[in-house]
Specification:
single chain, mainly alpha, 122 residues, globular, 3 strands, Arc Repressor Mutant, subunit A
Length: 122
């Protein structure tokens, strides 16, 4: 990756982490796992619109980043649980701040969108 003027190479690492933790599926998975440990099927049922493949990819990436722990239980049929790690729990606090900000400003954002759409349609 070519460095961009004004940005240090370490900013690329920050961007890579933000790309992972700030995508819509990761945010939803982290929010759900903050409440309790869940199985794959439970996560899939609670996240509207996510495909099995996308949930698998998201969970693997979160596990790789140390945010989610995957536990396989030696039973038949196989049981796999997912839970937040302590690091993942610290991220949830940050996500909750973003959710609170969104709730506090949703009317302003809706008004700005309506004004923009009206201006563009014009």
């Amino acid at each position: 990756m070519t460095p961009v003027e004004g940005y240090a190479p370490e900013d690329c690492a920050v961007r890579q982490i933000l790309d992972r933790v700030a995508d819509k599926w990761s945010l939803l998975v982290i929010a759900l796992l903050e409440r309790r440990t869940l199985r794959f099927t439970e996560l899939r049922q609670r996240i509207d619109g996510i495909s099995q493949r996308m949930l698998t990819v998201t969970l693997r990436q979160l596990e790789r980043d140390g945010l989610v722990r995957r536990t396989v239980h030696p039973v038949v049929p196989p049981r796999v649980d997912y839970e937040l790690t302590p690091l993942g729990a610290t991220l949830h606090a940050t996500i909750q701040s973003l959710v609170t900000w969104t709730e506090d400003h949703q009317d302003e954002i809706a008004a700005a969108r309506a004004a923009y759409d009206e201006r563009v349609a014009g």
